[in-house]
Amino acid sequence: MSEIVRVEHLKKYFPVQKSVLEQLFTRKKKSVRAVDDVTFSIKKGEIFTLAGESGCGKTTTGKLIVRLLKPTSGRIYFKGEDITQLKHEELRLLRRKMQIIFQDPYASLNPRMTIGKAIGHPLEIHGLARGEEKKGKVLEVLQKVGLTPPQQFMNLFPHQLSGGQRQRVALGRSIILEPEFMVADEPVSMIDVSLRTTIIDLMLGFRKELGLTYLFVTHDLAVAKYISDRIAIMYLGRIIEIGSKESLFKNPLHPYTKALLSAIPVPEPKKKREVIELKGEVPSAINIPPGCRFSSRCPFKKDECAQTEPELVEAEKDHFVACYLS
Amino acid sequence: MPLLEIDSLAVDYRTSRGTVHAVNDVSFFLEKGETLGLAGESGSGKSTLGLSIIRLVPYPGVIGGGQIKIDGRDIVALPEHEMQTFRGTKVAYVFQDPMISLNPVKKIGAHFVELIRTHEPNVSKKEAFERAKTVLKNLGIQPERINDYPHQFSGGMRQRIMIGLAIALNPDLVIADEPTTALDVIVQAKILDLLESLRKAYQMALILISHDLSIILERCDKIIVMYAGHMVEYADGTELHGRPAHPYTQKLLQSIPNIELSDQKLTAIPGSPPDMLSPPNGCRFWPRCSCTMEICRVKEPLLVSIGRNHLVKCFLYGEKGVQSE
Amino acid sequence: MVRIEMKRSMLARIVPGFTSLVKKGPSGQMVIIGMIIVLALVIMTAMGPWIAPHDPSASRVGGIRIPPNWQFPLGTNHLGQDVLSRTLCGGSIMLQVSALSVLLCFAIGVPLGLFSSYVGGFVDSAFSLVIDAVYAFPGLVIAIAIAAMLGPGVVNMALSIAVVYIPSYFRIVRSQVLSIKELTYVEAARSVGAKWYTILSRYILPNVVPSIVVVITINFADAILTAAGLTFIGLGVTYDIPDWGWDLTNGRTYISSGAWWIIAFPGLMIILLALGFTLIGEGLSELLNPKLQR
């Protein structure tokens, strides 16, 4: 299978406002190191998940790949082509092939646009269809995402729909251009549990039908396990473990991954789990400690962990981890 | 006598667009030291139910009927100043979003001192301070941080402070409304463990409100499943998980991904939760139910008993509680 | 055919619009009352020349400074002109000036605000600085200064008032755009490939319009009072057209001698007109804001 997206040493630093005193007396630049040297590739047709807790940089990475943000450094490749520096018209053409759906169904739709107009707008922007033809495509998409009867939904406004329905509209808007790659940023975390499977099933269906490749961003590892082919765990801006779903869940290597997995609630009554305790809190992304960034909380910390940052190495077949313990 | 007894409780929101019957005919009781989970999705009424127990339902909500008895005393019609003596001392509430629930211009020590001295005016400031420090220690927060402001704490720690404020006066009942929704999974586990250990230490009853059925199953003795303002099923955890009776409960359990299973097939529940301003006639779940019968569209089912401490509101179990067909 | 269709569909939307406004409680009722007042005064002024019993500019139609009686229901002024006729016709200049100034304000302030806040950075800071400087001056002072420079006339008056109120539009638009710019649906529009003018016109502007509508009505009210003020101190139109502001200026000397009716009725009209617009504005802002903040 060929590679569709590749990122190399991707970094995104957000500058931080210094206080007046700091501005006068220090020359150091303070930044939030949201994404701090991330490298991975996604194969065509797979569902690749970036998982981690809030603040780990997964959403930022997703937005960087679709070029909603400009990287501080590093490279992004789409189907072999370097898209890091694309501008204007070329970037707009790229947008037809790469799409993103957002977490908050209540905020991702323009409250003043009807559903029909919202879904048809991408076609209009790229001059792909208009009038009756455009309307036809919109109805088709509404049918595909399960908002039936489509004619009825065309003229409704977002505030007349539920969260699950809005997310379907957002999905429809993204697939109407028949993209090849989609970033899904926590698409179901703000939706009721009983409706999540519907959205997930829709997404899986589009993978088959349109040959879509997904980058799935989530903090919910249970959902990640259900839907992914490969998973990468991020911590404080870096990937600390990547592997196939099977190898990651069967044999988690990094202490953080182990702790994360142990903390996930299981829907069984009074289940006794061995929760791995982590000391302290996630350090600030402005002042990342030297050495392994997880070492301050790691129950297995060794001396070398505080010296230099470990790189991702292949511990077993197609299973990489950044840790000195393996 | 049970600690908490709810009898045919109804809570409505009287809005300009119509009346929303947020809670309908809910009855249950809770003994000292027990944990009860209120599970449900948006519009189920679980938060409103929790708020009504402590009489904090926001305007335009009113308690439309029924009784809420704490230690045998009905608090529905209690005058406000008497209710205030209950809050904090008998019943406490942990709110959902720790980011906005603390006063940003008050040190956390001040939060505690104010709380203690409002209910126990004879306690000196110094003594209240010391008690606050003890609470902080039990929460796993360094007591020296008593002079810090809320923004200096992370989300997880703020939630701990909220819990601390709730248990500071040693109430008999704590209601925690989605205490971990805004938090990451590792912090979530810690918070829930903390609640559990404090509960055991202080012998408190806990009502845990959440849309996350996983944590409710894990942590609660008894569970109530709510849908569109109705209590559709009530059972203890093992019974609910092993023999879910209501079609909604069954489908709900099948739509939660379980990290310990491989090759899970999740099912979806078609449709959406109803518009609470104009819910469907009869059983509110019938438009999404795969077992729906003629009678479901017309009449509202009543709670029937189908086993030891297992109640369900569904016509599949007839009038007497035996599964028909 | 198409035009009739459109008119019918507009009516179909307006009538239920009215009834739903009334149902919305005190704020909706405020809007209705305000609109009635404004509409009544506009119609009155438009019909003025036809319904006035006497020529408003004709002097000595009756005696001088005659109090209200059956022949002259609102009395006559110091020049013997019929106050009733002058009151009926006197709103024309004021309405023209305010309408023109609001139009100018809107046409300049809104695009400037949109552009400046969307572009951001240095451009935005520069514009904001200038606009804030203008905003810092008391409105009437600027209006007086500019009117004095430009001289009399409807257009000049409108210009001098417009300058005073452009900052209001700019600031409201800017604050709205700054917050909407960061919202997810704007990000979504960018991700689909929309160009900046599409984003501004179809995603940002429609969501800014509710706040602009409120500013327009309040602006109207202010413009009327400022126009009256300018005329009052002699910087308005000076030719012989009946004008409420003009009557105020000339009538005030006669209060001490008891001829209250000369300024009372024109003054009342000015207040009513400003009140009408204010009611609309206040009512709208109450109606629209809760929806915005949801």
Highlighted features:
heterotrimer, A: 326 residues, Rossmann fold, 2 domains, eight-stranded mixed beta sheet, 11 helices, globular, C: mainly alpha
End-to-end C-alpha gap of chain A: 29 Å
Structural class of chain B: alpha/beta
Helical fraction of chain B:
25-40%
Residues in β-strands, percent of chain B: 15-25%
Give me the Rg of chain B, rounded: 21 Å
Mean pLDDT of chain B: 88
Alpha-carbon distance between the two ends of chain B: 39 Å
Strand order of the largest sheet of chain B: 6-7-8-3-9-10-12-11
Name of the CATH class of chain B: Alpha Beta
Q: Please give the CATH class of the largest domain in chain A.
A: Alpha Beta
CATH architecture of the largest domain in chain A, please?
Answer: 3-Layer(aba) Sandwich
Can you say what the CATH homologous superfamily of the largest domain in chain A is?
Answer: P-loop containing nucleotide triphosphate hydrolases
Oligomer: heterotrimer
Layout of secondary structure:
The complex is a heterotrimer of chains A (about 325), B (about 325) and C (about 290).
Chain A: E1 3-15, H1 20-25, E2 31-43, E3 47-51, H2 58-65, E4 73-78, E5 81-82, H3 88-95, E6 98-101, H4 115-125, H5 131-144, H6 150-154, H7 163-175, E7 181-185, H8 193-210, E8 213-218, H9 221-227, E9 230-235, E10 238-244, H10 245-250, H11 255-263, E11 313-316, E12 319-321
Helix pairs in contact in A: 4-5, 4-7, 5-7, 7-8
Chain B: E1 4-15, E2 18-30, E3 35-39, H1 46-53, E4 61-70, E5 73-74, H2 80-86, E6 91-94, H3 98-101, H4 108-119, H5 125-139, H6 155-167, E7 173-177, H7 185-202, E8 205-210, H8 213-219, E9 222-227, E10 230-236, H9 237-242, H10 247-254, E11 303-307, E12 310-313
Helix pairs in contact in B: 4-5, 5-6, 6-7
Chain C: H1 2-23, H2 26-51, H3 83-89, H4 91-119, H5 121-136, H6 139-150, H7 154-181, H8 184-192, H9 196-232, H10 244-251, H11 261-293
Helix pairs in contact in C: 1-2, 2-11, 3-11, 4-5, 4-7, 4-9, 5-7, 6-7, 7-9, 8-9, 9-10, 9-11, 10-11
